[in-house]
Design goal:
With 344 residues, the chain is an alpha+beta fold. Helices cover 55% and strands 16% of the residues. The protein folds into 3 domains: 25-121, Alpha Horseshoe (Serine Threonine Protein Phosphatase 5, Tetratricopeptide repeat); 125-210, Immunoglobulin-like (Sandwich); 223-343. It is elongated and about 95 Å long.
Length: 344
């Protein structure tokens, strides 16, 4: 019975490992295709498609070499602020690798440092100042991106280009300012805020700031966010499952040892003290073993389900909030269960 149960658990472990490996391989293949496309477009000077493709490759499958290539792409595209940040991140990342790995990146690290020395002085900054009398609830957007209070009044590195700055004040019309940023610019822009009596023509109050500056930061359920959530849940459940199998296996071996002790110290229904003690502890260990294997099988099965159904969300739930997932374990005197508790 014990060996048959162990064989079943081994089969579930193998299935889960194969599914996880397949998911990782698919991510790696997607990232590789995006990287190759990005490099080809970069060599053809099509930076508007090259850099986003390389950036997406890095997001899916982060690698130091991809990060370096992204910095090179943005530098050639003229996005010096982005390039400088990526070169610096690459240098810092390589510095934390092993000596052998650092040796393989030596040439590129030298290029990154040379590029930083060259482009850092050219990175423009833009400072946006709200007036002191700006009413509570006023917020600012820069090309649609909400700037939080700490970012206002601070010289922020920025890529060259055209920017639309909009000041949103409660009960007033929006005030728009357009700014053109060139290399080496250090611009400071005082912002205007409409008065409380400056009500829009349609009588509607100014829009409230979005609760977040980006969907990814605060859990808007984009398809990518939902897929990541499913993978996280799968790995959590799978990890618990593997731990359960380990506990079940160890205690199962101990049960066999106790059974051998009982056989040597009992005759029929009569046992000496050693035999009685071994029988009692063996019964407890058997219960723990059953719980361990139950959790293991349930965890691996649940993990496999999450990996297989990671992309099955319907369009109707695209704007639902992404749930937070945590494992839920329940054990009784004769049964055990494992699930995931989803909280919104």
């Amino acid at each position: 019975m014990w060996f048959r149960r162990l064989a079943l658990v081994s089969a579930w472990s193998s299935a889960f490992a194969l599914i996880a490996a397949r998911a990782a391989a698919e991510d790696s293949a997607t990232a590789g295709a995006l990287f190759e496309k990005g490099v080809a477009d970069m060599e053809a000077n099509r930076f508007d498609s090259a850099c986003p493709a390389i950036e997406e490759s890095q997001r899916i499958d982060p690698r130091p070499g991809t990060l370096f290539t992204l910095a090179e792409c943005n530098a050639r595209w003229g996005k010096v602020a982005s390039a400088a940040a990526e070169y610096q991140e690459y240098v810092d990342l390589v510095s934390r690798l092993t000596a052998d790995q650092q040796a393989r990146h030596k040439a590129r690290v030298e290029i990154a440092r040379a590029q930083l020395k060259k482009i850092k002085p050219t990175v423009p900054t833009l400072t946006l100042d709200l007036p002191a009398n700006a009413p509570r609830g006023t917020f600012v957007t820069r090309n649609g991106e909400v700037l939080k209070g700490a970012a206002l009044g601070l010289p922020l590195p920025i890529d060259p280009g055209e920017y639309v700055i909009v000041t949103h004040a409660p009960g007033a019309t929006e005030r728009e300012t357009r700014v053109s940023i060139q290399l080496n610019d250090q611009k400071r822009v005082p912002l205007e805020v409409g008065s409380a009596n400056d009500v829009p023509a349609n009588g509607a109050p100014a829009a409230a700031p979005p609760a977040t500056s980006s969907a990814a930061d605060h859990g808007a359920a984009t398809p990518a966010a939902r897929g990541t959530n499913h993978k996280t849940a799968a790995y959590v459940a799978g990890g618990i499952g593997l731990a359960g199998i380990a506990v079940g296996s160890v205690t199962g071996v101990l049960v066999l040892s106790k059974k051998h002790t009982v056989s040597g110290n009992c005759s029929g229904a009569e046992c000496n003290d050693i035999g009685l003690s071994a029988a009692s502890s063996g019964k407890n260990l058997a219960f723990v073993s059953d719980i361990g294997f139950g959790v293991g099988i349930a965890g691996l099965a649940l993990g496999a389900v999450f990996l297989l159904t990671g992309g099955s969300d319907s369009a109707a739930t695209e704007h639902a909030q992404t749930p937070r997932v945590q494992p839920l374990f329940v054990a009784g005197s004769s049964s055990v269960g494992l699930g995931l508790l989803r909280r919104w």
